[in-house]
Design goal:
InterPro entries: Phytyl_CoA_dOase-like. This protein is an alpha+beta fold and 348 residues long. Helix content is 18%, strand content 21%.
Length: 348
């Protein structure tokens, strides 16, 4: 058998989005233009009261806000003692890392994989009954299957996708507005009304101190979970999720959002985040618990990529502080970078 020479297999992958994009490269300038954008100018302008869940808080009320706006605020979601314990267990892990790019401002400090560094985060935050119920509604999967002469039913429970603590310091700039479901290549479609079954992840963020527009409160674009995949958000469409210590902000991963600029001189915006995703978004077999690192180090780069020990662009499967696992397994080779993929400046 004659083995063909290596080729860029990404060129063979099907795409439902690239056919509607016109690319241009002139010297070092790379631009992209959406050829036929969906004609949709609808923009929601909710108040804080519109997004805040009234007492008594129920999962039905949270779900209703998420269906309409894509986000919801729950006052006093976690008790101060739990929020303080989370901070005490996680904050010692803060380190200053120079980020290669502008997705995170240099003034932002972060700790990742907080469920593995704090039992309080794992038990009291991630496993909070209200959060688990919301995740079950939006990203749980339950279906029936034929197996021989039997019909079996199965439930795929949501699982941890990412957890972090972010501290935005004075001088930080706006983070680019983005959807977190790009991690799973979720292609959003324009909808007049929310439809269940398309969401890949749900987030919950808890404030460790008062978060304001001035010190970097998370901004998100209400209603953007109903937008077409290629609609571009405008800065004036963003809502600032200002909260007090212990408050929570629930958000669908299909919503545009981002950290905000910290225009203060002496305030830090401290928040903990957990994203849950569909339980089926993983390999069938878990091969990592029983496999020594030395075995992985003996494999080729391509074998490691095929096993899953590499980042799936743009942002899935990273290790520690947003590093490609290949850098850990094969540190002697320049296999990867912090890039999320090829970037082109949008021309509107």
């Amino acid at each position: 058998m004659t083995v063909p020479p290596p080729q860029d297999l990404s060129e063979l992958a099907p795409s439902v989005t690239l056919s509607n994009v016109e690319f241009s490269v002139k010297g070092d300038v790379k631009t992209a233009r959406i050829k036929n954008p969906i004609k949709d100018e609808k923009s929601l302008k909710p108040t804080v009261a519109d997004l805040t869940i009234s007492e008594p808080v129920t999962a039905d009320k949270i779900a209703e806000k998420l269906e309409i706006y894509g986000g919801a605020i729950v006052k006093n979601f976690l008790a101060d003692e739990i929020v303080d314990r989370m901070w005490d267990e996680i904050s010692p892990h803060f380190t200053k890392r120079v980020w290669n790019g502008d997705f995170f401002p240099q003034e932002t400090q972060r700790v990742t994989a907080t469920v593995c560094k704090s039992k309080t985060v794992a038990e009291d935050f991630m496993c909070h009954p209200m959060f688990r119920e919301i995740c079950a509604r939006f990203i749980g999967k339950k279906n029936s299957f034929i197996m021989g002469d039997e019909l079996v039913t199965a439930y795929s429970e949501p699982q941890h996708n990412a957890s972090s603590m972010l501290s935005i310091g004075p001088g930080a700039k706006d983070q680019p507005l983005h959807r977190d479901d790009i991690t799973h290549h979720n292609i959003c479609q324009y909808r007049e009304k929310y439809e269940y079954g398309h969401e890949t992840a749900v987030a919950c963020a808890v404030a460790h101190n008062t978060t304001t527009k001035a010190n970097g409160a998370t901004r998100f674009v209400p209603g953007s979970h109903l937008w077409d995949h290629q609609r571009v958000p405008k800065p004036e469409e963003a809502f600032y999720a200002e909260m007090e210590k212990g408050d929570a902000f629930f958000m669908l991963a299909s919503c545009f959002h981002g950290g905000s600029a910290n225009t203060t001189t002496d305030e830090w915006r401290n928040m903990s985040f957990i994203f849950m995703t569909q339980g089926l978004l993983r390999p069938e077999i878990n091969i990592f618990l029983e496999t020594p690192l030395e075995y992985f180090q003996s494999l080729s780069v391509q074998a490691l990529k095929s096993i899953g020990l590499a980042v799936s662009q743009p942002f899935c499967g990273w290790y520690r502080d947003l590093e490609d696992p290949l850098k850990v397994v094969k540190p002697e080779q320049d296999n990867s970078s912090d890039d999320m993929g090829k970037g082109f400046q949008l021309v509107l």
